[in-house]
Design goal:
The protein is of the alpha/beta class. The chain has seven helices and eleven strands. The chain has a single domain, classed as Class I glutamine amidotransferase (GATase) domain (Rossmann fold), CATH 3.40.50. InterPro entries: Class_I_gatase-like, DJ-1/PfpI, INH-QAR.
């Protein structure tokens, strides 16, 4: 079972690595990082490099696609090579998915037209401009269309666990959760916009610049 994770300049690291850590626990899964060219791609702050092992034209029928987000998505909204690849492989996938602003790329490829979807709270307006209908949920599923979208960054782990359940079974998904000891107990309860006060929202806006 091949899982393709596309990489691009200025992707958000956890968007890709979170699902990777979950999915690579399943023996049947082979993960390939795919991109415009072979070689290293740097994350959104430039501090981390991840290697693309294959080009888009070398990965033609992945079973699953997980599109990460990051500020680099904005310059790819009219990138013919990436968007054409998504359109070409989606009819053959078991699931096509996104994390954070990766949903912008699914929308730009026309895969979310008329569907509800989620993304990072800072990209809601752009997602809706691209044809999707935003809902404030951590993971949004459209199983008949074989599409899942997840909200900002850390929600990709939740989505990947759900993917394992759909691809294998519940027990395997629970075992993967145990293997990564995913038992969130954050020190603050402000991980979504409705839970954050105005001062925290303003600080978050400053950090996004």
């Amino acid at each position: 079972m091949q899982v393709a994770i596309p990489l691009f300049a200025r992707f958000t690291a956890l968007d890709a690595v979170g699902p990777y850590e979950v999915l690579q626990r399943v023996p049947e899964v082979e993960i390939v990082f795919v991109g415009h060219r072979h070689g290293e791609v740097r994350s959104d702050n430039g501090m981390l490099g991840v290697t693309c092992d294959a080009r888009f034209d070398e990965v033609l029928r992945p079973d699953v696609v997980v599109v990460p987000g990051g500020v680099g998505t904005r310059v790819l909204l009219d990138d013919a090579e990436l968007l054409d690849w998504l359109r070409r492989v989606h009819p053959h996938t078991r699931f096509t998915t996104s994390v954070c602003t990766g949903s912008l790329l699914l929308a730009a490829a026309g895969l979310l037209d008329g569907l509800t979807a989620t993304t990072h709270w800072g990209a809601v307006e752009l997602l809706e401009h691209l044809g999707a209908r935003y809902v404030e949920q951590r993971v949004v599923e459209h199983l008949p269309q074989r599409i899942l979208t997840s909200a900002g960054v850390s929600s990709g782990i939740d989505m990947a666990l759900r993917l394992v359940e759909l691809l294998v079974d519940t027990e395997t998904a629970q075992a993967a959760q145990l293997m990564i000891e995913y038992d969130p107990q954050p020190p603050f309860d402000c991980g979504s916009l409705p839970k954050a006060d105005e001062a925290v929202r303003n600080r978050a806006a400053q950090l996004r610049r």
